[in-house]
Amino acid sequence: MVKIGVSLVVTICALIYPVHLLDNGLAQTPTMGWLHWERFMCNVDCVNDPHNCISEQLYMQMADIMVQEGWKEAGYEYVCIDDCWLADERDSEDRLQPDPTRFPSGIKKLADYVHSKGLKLGIYQDVGNLTCAGYPGSHGYYDLDAETFADWGVDLLKFDGCNFGTLDMLVEGYKYMSRALNATGRNILYSCEWPLYLWPFHQPNYTDIRQYCNHWRNYDDVYDSWQSVKSIIDWTASHQNLIVPVAGPGGWNDPDMLVIGNFGLSWDQQVSQMAMWVIMAAPLLMSNDLRSIDPKSKMLLQNKHLIAINQDPLGRQGYRISRVNSFDVWERPLSGGRYAFAVLNRQEIGGPRQFPLLLATLPSWKTCHPECSVTQILPSYQDLGVQNLLSALKLTINPSGTVLFTVTLNEGLAAEQKWNWNMTKKQKTPNSVF
Ligand code: GLA
Prior knowledge:
Blueprint: H1 2-16, E1 32-35, H2 37-40, H3 56-68, H4 71-74, E2 78-80, H5 107-116, E3 120-126, H6 142-152, E4 156-160, H7 167-183, E5 189-192, H8 194-198, H9 206-212, E6 215-217, H10 226-238, H11 240-243, E7 252-254, H12 267-279, E8 284-286, H13 295-301, H14 304-310, E9 319-324, E10 327-333, E11 339-345, E12 353-358, E13 372-378, E14 382-387, E15 392-397, E16 402-409, H15 411-428
Parallel strand pairs: 1-2, 1-8, 2-3, 3-4, 4-5, 5-6, 6-7
Antiparallel strand pairs: 9-10, 10-11, 11-16, 12-15, 13-14, 13-16
This protein binds alpha-D-galactopyranose.
Keywords: Disulfide bond, Glycoprotein, Glycosidase, Hydrolase, Lipid metabolism, Lysosome, Signal
Family: Belongs to the glycosyl hydrolase 27 family.
EC number: 3.2.1.-
């Protein structure tokens, strides 16, 4: 009987909490930082392009600016190296080594420098024999590479999946590296691309992936274009039933880097990328040139209201709730019973369009009963006042732009109304003591 009771409790718990946490305690909220790939790619030409090539100087400069220009204060913490940092060969003891001309001081010195600024250092490797750009991969050296990263003081590993061999090797390699990182005893956040490489063959097992990774890429590399950003948003919406439930503190879906502040997105499209990454509880890893970013993009990336939503402690990923008349409506549940909404205008012809939003039609309509406070955050901050279920908000949204707002239950009024209602009920109850 007791046994049945215990197993019943275990089963119920497993049903309520089907997600197992990677036990490194990291990424309780989505990771924030800077990652070189989209903007700097595999530029190894330090002779002709010393300012933009992949070298220790690039990360030191980014670290300096992250402290000086408010990025660190806003929450951006990880300075991350991507592909193309390695020398062509391992050293005589099979250890990885950085390219000696581009990283003359070595990674440990670079990590010390980044740590001295109160920031963290991320590095890149690959589960297979070669990285995507053709440098030595980790296959066959998982333990040694994990120890090397820990010795150097690395804080994050982006583990790519090029050249993986068989599917078994891919899956086992990702799991092995997760255990190897844990075994070093150093806190190393583990960023995977495991599902991205599985999708061409079969649907990944996300419960499994979450047990080993702190975040995971699902879909194509982001490019500096609206087409690319849109395709990532659409992929996410069309797979939301599968991938949203698995996201939460300790493990996140990674839609790839923010390309805000580069060349390809209009202002409204930058607003849309930021809004959607915030709603999707995505890691906020910027890939841009912080040394020359324009002030407007900087303000958008450092917006504290947006960062607070992205980093909300409830840790629930948002989802698309409707697609109507070329408007996509997304919602994200937040702590304290609040919600964030994003309405994206998908029409790319004509001018700004109005979207009439009747609060009573939202799945989370109860937040506005009896009253709620609505605050618009994008494209500009605006208090939209106290609203109720009969309110129709008239949102004006530019082509490929987004309006993002939060809705907070008006607690005082709700409590008062509940009290009144209880009192009426009590007075009406025949055997009431009153
Ligand atoms: C893959 C990854 C990218 C980047 C490159 C580096 O394409 O998905 O994010 O790391 O490799 O070669």
